Amino acid sequence: MVTTDFSPIADTTRRAEIVALLRRAILTGQLQPGQKLNELRISEQMRVSRAPLREAMRELVQEGILTSIPYAGTFVIDVTAKDIDDAYSLNQVLDEFAIERTWPQRDQRFFDELDRRHEAVKQATRNLDTTRQIETALQLHGLIYEWADNSVLLETWQRLTSRLQMYFALHQHARNEPVPAEDVHEIYVQLMKGADMRAAQRHAREHINLDFEQLLSYARSLEQRPSKGA
Amino acid sequence: MVTTDFSPIADTTRRAEIVALLRRAILTGQLQPGQKLNELRISEQMRVSRAPLREAMRELVQEGILTSIPYAGTFVIDVTAKDIDDAYSLNQVLDEFAIERTWPQRDQRFFDELDRRHEAVKQATRNLDTTRQIETALQLHGLIYEWADNSVLLETWQRLTSRLQMYFALHQHARNEPVPAEDVHEIYVQLMKGADMRAAQRHAREHINLDFEQLLSYARSLEQRPSKGA
DNA sequence: TCTTGTTAGATTGTCGACAATCTGATTGTC
DNA sequence: GACAATCAGATTGTCGACAATCTAACAAGA
């Protein structure tokens, strides 16, 4: 019997493509926080009717990166310092849990994937592609969530990730300075390969801590002059 | 200056009402796991066109209680034993975190609300209204999430809650036996009013444990004969 | 009998048009 | 000038119809 592994067919609805397009635009900062999404304009630009566009927007509202006010419009969520702080503190807890669950499941495939994603981050760093750098760094970090074998945890992480990515993108755009070339993930990768789980958990917490501290100070500085929207 | 507290105006779109109707139908078990939702039939029953219905369904898909396959249909999610197990283990972690965050924020208003919700559970129990009993019990438990002052945590909990409610409803429907009349929440409420945070955390973990153990054994017994759908 | 091709019916995905609602500018009144 | 009423334009919400796709039954051929 032939048992080739086929991956599922890609979604081929306009809706799915619109979701992907919009999500990318938001997460990369093309669409800025607070900005209003004009349905007619976007649907014309995408050469699509409003129906699938609106359905796509509903999805992103539930995904937490858009917010909708009936008869007023749909907007990119605003990023407050508190949001970042909330996401951060929850992330600490989830990280600890994810590492704990992943730990006994680690095998060669895990280590290989870890290296692969680490390599992707380094590549993006070399290319000075900050957007891609953020993306790959989050993917590296997300590996423990994919291996924790807990669908609800993974979902939660993915929702968190969206926001984190927005925050980071905003951060980068405003500062417009490349991330340090030194490889901050080296230690993390080594620890995840090692034998001391507690050490890995501790490092994850502290490492993330650093990134967040930067973000927080920046976000607080923004708090004074809120974004005007479109 | 007059500073009356006004609550926000209710959403007055058909979409919002449809979401509420569908959610309720799913969480109470009226719509069973695996069942397909026929758009035309439902839209005719609700006297509504398919557009707002479809948008509502997209929201519930992202909310995690519906699942959609392009050109095939939208279905109520299937409840597996693993789902329950995943939700349970994550819930343990989140509970601990929520209690920790809520603890310093407790005040008279918190205690009053705690009592109010506890009373609601007891009332539902007296009326032998199992559906309402599940609802109120989850609301009692959710108080710590509302007071933890962390929007992301609250969202996560609400998503978890939907599934838990589905699981419980399924459980009740199948067994068709009223929940024990004894008040299992008494100790929890007392501990949340007390001074020993660790004790409260420990109890939450163990108490939930009990409820889940029942659910798990039931769910595993279902694993053999999967629901046929509509 | 098994497999493959065809087709009709049902269902989902998408479209363009209309209705309901909001925004702001304008007008009229004091 | 300040304020309320009115109105036009723009935008969102909803509808009914059509297009694309799937499913299952049936027929044809090996």
The number of distinct structural domains of chain A comes to: 2
User: Any guess at the CATH architecture of the largest domain in chain A?
Assistant: Up-down Bundle
Beta-strand percentage of chain A?
A: under 5%
Largest sheet of chain A: 3 strands, antiparallel
Named CATH topology of the largest domain in chain A: Four Helix Bundle (Hemerythrin (Met), subunit A)
Greatest chain-chain contact: A-B, 35 and 35 residues
Mean pLDDT of chain A: 86
Given the helix and strand composition of chain A, which structural class is it?
Answer: mainly alpha
Number of strands of chain A: 3
Which H/E pattern describes the elements of chain A?
Answer: HEHHEEHHHHHH
Strand order of the largest sheet of chain A: 1-3-2
Helix percentage of chain A = 55-70%
Terminal CA distance of chain A reads 58 Å
| CATH homologous superfamily grouping of the largest domain in chain A | GntR ligand-binding domain-like
- Cα-atom Rg of chain A, whole angstroms? 19 Å
Number of helices of chain A: 9
Assembly context of the chains: homodimer
What is the CATH domain class of the largest domain in chain A? Answer: Mainly Alpha
Overall geometry of chain A comes to: globular
Taking pLDDT < 50 over at least 5 consecutive residues as the criterion, the unreliable ranges of chain A are 225-230
Question: Short summary of the structure?
Answer:
The structure is a homodimer of 230-residue chains. Chain A is mostly helical and 230 residues long. Chain A is 67% helix and 4% strand.
